[in-house]
Amino acid sequence: MKTTGYRKRTTFILFVLLLVRFWLGQTFELSGRESYLWLLGHGANLDWGYLNTGVLVPWLNRLGTVFFGNTELGVRWIASVIYIAAGFVIFWSARRWFDPVSAFWTMVIYLVAPVYTWKLLLMNEATVSLGLMALALLAYREAVVTDKWYWYLASGVISGLAVHVSWSNLIWPLGLLLYYFIDSARRQQLRHPQHLITPVTVAILSIPIFLWYQRPEMEGIKRLHPLPLEGASHQFSLLSGFHFISEQIVWLSPAIFLGILLAFYYAGAVTFNQRRYELLLCVSLPGIALQLLASFFGAANPDLMPALYLPIIFVAGNLWVGLAEREARWRRVGVGLLILAGLQSLWGLIPSADRALNNLSGLHPAYSYRNLADEMSRRMQEKGASVAVAQDHETASALTFYLPRQQMAYVIARHGVRSQFDFWPNYNDFNGYNFILVTNQGHRAPEHFTCNFDSVDPMPDVSVAQSESMGWTFYYCQGFKSEGDPAQKSATVEEMSGANPLPK
């Protein structure tokens, strides 16, 4: 089998893509989630714990802006580096798992899959989790094969860092333990002391999360949810689950999804008979199953899915190479599926094409935060208002990023902890000031907010370019009274949790 040249091809492809993604990341605005994660690491907001997210992404955001400032490039250049570095690690790791041919084509699948082409352009939990998963697969493989203590330590460190992206990533090291438990011979190996290194390391690195969660300020969120599940409805809904599943198939690409099904159908008989496949499936499938189950209760996190798909892509890539080496027709089918997936990825990068299909890539929403900030700034100057307020934390974060001099925008005060804004100084010190409030079109200014002002008037003729289909409503709020209305203080958690968020 000819295996030369794959390393050079991989290096050339990834180097070119690095330059392309550095440029591409500056061509569109930050998303609401990116803005929120940026704000967590901005200025004095940097902390060792955050609500509903880990510390790793905000700290990486802080590092990125040190080099390129508080710009789109400053926020996203590390995402480009993670994407390219993960490509190298995937090639190297798959080569260790299988062979150079399988490694190269696994890397190609990674590059053309829309879920990675699109999501990893953004600096968020999906990007950092994927980078850590690529490293984890290498460390897990070496730990199992060599049984060396330092590979178990590396596995624990990588898994612990993944928990600092999202606590749900704890499922990765549990998958490693599952790999040992499902086989009686491997269960005997767990008696060896080196196998304790990974769970002990993960536990030690997770201590800051549990210490932060014991802060007195966290009592509000504990009353809302026993665990910090952002947006969880806890109500069973078939529609919610099926919507999540169909959305994931689109993001993964129907072509790649079909390729995975074909690979397991025609070549999957060997999958459960080889240890290397068992380990990959144990790391991936429990997490995917857990997220799919959670989706029926409105608690799934789509940003965790790209990392969980990677072990499956390792398996499918190697199975496809085996099929292609036996029959030319599988080679043609495989190339065709990759071309279709690549075309879908390219389509999602074109703003006009993506908006025509309802922004399925998530990169080009039907509204512009930059233009919203420009309109907000103009209205504040026109009315002599000093404080900008938004209805949700993502819009407030994006306004903060795009307002002149990155003036702090606030969120409507709510009772109970809803976002990291509740831990920061709020607008209660602006007694007597005038505010401008922005809400999603059709959402009235909340009564528990308006009762604190002498007058609240909707502002007519608000026009935000590139946001026509979304629409915003501005309110001019005069004479803030920081004491508030007694009725506001007695508002219940249920009333607050019923507020309608902006679409993501």
Q: Stretches where pLDDT falls below 50 for ≥5 residues?
A: 228-233, 484-504
Compute the gyration radius: what is it?
A: 24 Å
In one word, what is the shape?
globular
Tally of strands: 5
Order of helices and strands: HHHHHHHHHHHHHHHHHHHEHEEHEEHH
User: Largest sheet, order of strands side by side?
Assistant: 2-1-3-5-4
Outline:
The protein has 504 residues and is mainly alpha-helical.
Protein described:
Mean pLDDT is 87; it is low at 228-233 and 484-504. A 5-stranded mixed sheet has the order 2-1-3-5-4, covered by helices on one side. By secondary structure, the protein is mainly alpha-helical. The chain has helices spanning 6-24, 32-40, 56-68, 72-97, 100-112, 114-119, 125-146, 149-163, 171-181, 184-189, 197-213, 219-224, 238-252, 254-267, 275-295, 305-326, 328-349, 351-356, 369-383, 393-402, 447-450, 486-489, 493-497; strands at 387-390, 409-411, 435-440, 453-459, 472-480. It has 2 domains: 6-220 and 238-356, no CATH class; 369-497, no CATH class. Helix 20 links the parallel strand 1 and strand 2. The longest helix has 26 residues, at 72-97.
Task: List the topology elements.
Blueprint: H1 6-24, H2 32-40, H3 56-68, H4 72-97, H5 100-112, H6 114-119, H7 125-146, H8 149-163, H9 171-181, H10 184-189, H11 197-213, H12 219-224, H13 238-252, H14 254-267, H15 275-295, H16 305-326, H17 328-349, H18 351-356, H19 369-383, E1 387-390, H20 393-402, E2 409-411, E3 435-440, H21 447-450, E4 453-459, E5 472-480, H22 486-489, H23 493-497
Parallel strand pairs: 1-2, 1-3
Antiparallel strand pairs: 3-5, 4-5
Helix pairs in contact: 1-4, 2-3, 2-20, 3-4, 4-5, 4-7, 5-16, 5-17, 7-8, 7-16, 8-11, 9-15, 13-14, 13-15, 14-16, 14-17, 15-16, 16-17, 19-20
